[in-house]
Amino acid sequence: MMKCIRSGIVGILVTFYIYWMVYLHSYEPTRRNKVDVITTGQQKSAPILHHVKSQYPRGKSPVGSRVVKLSEVKVASNARSNVVKTIFNKVTNDEQLVESKHSQNKDTTENPKVILYWTSFFSVSDFYQSTGDRPFKGCSKTCFATTNKSLFDKADALLIHPYEFEYEKSKLIGQKSHLLHYPHGDLPKYHPPHQRWVMYTEEPPTIMNPKNTKQFNDVFNWTITYRSDSDILNPYGQLAKKKMDFNLTKNFARGKDKLIAWFVSDCKTQSKREVIVRELQKHIPVDIFGACGSLKCPRKSEANCSRMLESRYKFYLSFENSLCVEYVTEKLWKVLKLDIIPIVLGGANYTKILPKKSFINILDFTSLDTFVNYLNLLDGNDTLYNEYFMWKKDYDFLHTYELRRSYMCSLCKKLHEDHTVKTYPNMDMWWNEKRDCVSPEIYLQNWF
């Protein structure tokens, strides 16, 4: 009798123990909040956990729950460790870290570098780069990117877009209202010695917010901009020499029945480009598409708009909104892909970055009259017009979207190799509107 009772009690205890283990296993996922696992060399270091009070009822999983039958449970000495291992491997897509990257790299013993997007980039949290190891596919070094600020102490670099920081709303009176919707940014309270703070911007000093860059003196270690004196260069576009000969026999003027087109949405700029175009229209027809003109071509139909441009128009106005050193944007680079001649206005030395006779610089002319006369000359002579396309035999075009991975690879490589300690003690002098940008009054006075 006693033997039967003892057997029954043992059976109950075993059953209770099994149910208890099943309960712990099913509850375990709710005790983690975004797990980041860092692969270091050949073995994993201790995962970085950030425990938070679960927002789900006890025993409920955020991804749903189900009844586990006893027949599905296999009691083993390593059951709990296997469950935990499975949990740690369930990393979210946005925070997926480097697991297989080491097999692709030349040096498989180096630790991956952590790059934290500290601000957003015009409301885009991952700077249009994605997270995890995805931005570094094909790079020579191992890195991963994250938006998880709880990894601040572990981050090797912070990517910071100063435009996101708080500025006086009173200064925005009369300016674009959409600026008010950008997320408020804030710098960390302290700067760990091992960490590189990287300023990223695609905009010139004329439209930099906050305007007072003196507050960033001794803040940034590195810079990523369109300027060649940045630590990492990130141009809007580039041309590369072709690897094989290419013959051009096309008449690029054939079938074109219109002269000049301009796509524009910013109607009041530092460069006063809108003033030039108004004067230009008094001498020669200019078709203006977008918010500043009467013609429309929706952005969602960009491919159709491009085909229309290169099939009907001979010239396109690639006028920048600011006359700043080396500031050359997609307004030019996109057009270089098309069979149309770009007319440029900007602060860059275009002859240093572009082949001869690939563009017309309006600032090379002493007056609007001489400029208009030259356009009329090209319009009436197909041979002269076609000379502006001969460069396409020798060069391929790289657009900014193809270059984005390039600057992330460069940043990753620099984190691994450059251990120099530096800051920008005079950021207000390095990124300065008065020093880097030219007033349009110089040429406006000469022309009008």
TrEMBL record:
Q: Which UniProt keywords apply?
A: Glycoprotein, Glycosyltransferase, Golgi apparatus, Membrane, Signal-anchor, Transferase, Transmembrane, Transmembrane helix
Q: Keyword Signal, does the record have it?
A: no
What's its membrane topology? Single-pass type II membrane protein
Keyword Transmembrane helix set for record: yes
Where's it found, cell-wise? Golgi apparatus membrane; Golgi apparatus, Golgi stack membrane
Q: Which domain of life is it from?
A: Eukaryota
Provide the primary localization: Golgi
Question: Which Gene3D superfamilies does UniProt cross-reference here?
Answer: Glycosyl transferase family 10, C-terminal domain
Which residue ranges run through the membrane? 7-24
According to its UniProt record, in which pathway does this protein act?
Protein modification; protein glycosylation
- What family classification does the UniProt entry report for this protein? Belongs to the glycosyltransferase 10 family.
Please state what the protein is called. Answer: Fucosyltransferase
Q: What is the organism of origin for this protein?
A: Owenia fusiformis (Polychaete worm)
